[in-house]
Amino acid sequence: VTSDEELSAGQLTAWRTFMEMQEVLRGRIAALLQADSKLSNADYTVLVALSEAADGRMRAVSLSYALQWEKSRLHHQLTRMCKRGLVERQCGVGRASIVAVTAEGRAALNAAAPIHSRHVRQLVFDRLTKQQAEQFAQISRTLLDGLRHDLSG
Amino acid sequence: VTSDEELSAGQLTAWRTFMEMQEVLRGRIAALLQADSKLSNADYTVLVALSEAADGRMRAVSLSYALQWEKSRLHHQLTRMCKRGLVERQCGVGRASIVAVTAEGRAALNAAAPIHSRHVRQLVFDRLTKQQAEQFAQISRTLLDGLRHDLSG
Partner of A101 for a Cys bridge, out of A2, A6, A53, A56, CB 3.0 to 4.6 A? Predict the structure, then answer.
């Protein structure tokens, strides 16, 4: 059921707390990742996506869709990562642009992942009860499904 | 209790879903705000903070702390908003830099707020049960308190 009303006072407080929380959390996680691994959040996200793809390769257009990033944002990000040797552009069939993670990119990800994982555990999951962690997962899933449904509609 | 372990498989899934959700949600909210009101998320955040301060004014350093933004980020943001007439810089006591919302800034915020509020309601609260909305608020509060505690420690 979609309503056309504004937020209640309680909802507004909840929303502001959420927005502030996610902003501070993203900032903290990004700072730790950069300090530990010299990777930005965006670098890390791209490396995870490619490393989990078959042969460590994806079409740029598929990567753009998977990350929900606009083409120009992805292009600039990949250019920076290419220069640092973390990914490489390859020729695909026809004019398809293919992006592949390099051995150096995999090594950077493998070094960063366990450290990043511990930070997320300490900043998020160690602070929630088991029940809250389940609620956190369920609420995120519900909201994401709704957002995706809007896009496909 | 702080653990030194990595994330479990379930936690990793929950974390990735959360990160994707908040990224898509922020993007959607930002796009709607821009389309409706010609304000970025950052513009909106600054206008809300100033409009709720006494006399619509804050010391830049207090604003920076309240938003948890680095000084240079706030400086660039305020420069853009000054040029558009949404805020103005004023001389404070001694060398303190003061930022004030203008009548134009208040008008822009007042026009944007109810539309923004309806979008948040439709994208978030209409999709959660009353119980989930309470969980969402409580989890955000718990995580934010933890992050703030880290900073003050």
Answer: A56
Strands A87-91 and A97-101: antiparallel
pLDDT of residue A5: 79
H/E run at residue A44: helix A41-51
What span, in angstroms and rounded, lies between the C-alpha atoms of B50 and B134? 28
Q: Across the interface, which of A1, A12, A147 has its CB nearest the CB of B123?
A: A147
Q: What is the pLDDT of residue B86?
A: 97
Residue type, A19: M
Q: Is A14 on the interface with B (CB under 8 A)?
A: yes
Under DSSP, is residue A124 helix (H, G, I), strand (E, B) or coil?
Answer: coil
At B91, is the secondary structure helix, strand, or coil?
Answer: strand
**Cβ pair A121:B68 closer than 8 A:** no
Question: In this complex, is the C-beta atom of B12 within 8 Å of any C-beta atom belonging to chain A?
Answer: yes
Please state, rounded to an integer, the average pLDDT across all residues of chain B. 91
Write out residues in chain A with pLDDT < 50, as ranges: 1
**Rounded to two decimals, what is the model's pTM?**
0.86
pLDDT tens by residue, B21-52: 998 999 899 999 999 999 999 999 999 999 99
Nearest residue to B39 (alpha-carbon basis) of B68, B74, B91, B80: B80
At which residue do the structure tokens 């010299």 appear?
A38
Residue A61's pLDDT is 92
Sheet of B57-59, strand order: B57-59, B97-101, B87-91
Q: Which two tokens stand for residue B16?
A: 């990735």
Identity of the amino acid at A42: A
Query: Could you give the 3-state DSSP secondary structure of residue B38?
Result: coil
> In this predicted complex, what is the ipTM?
0.87
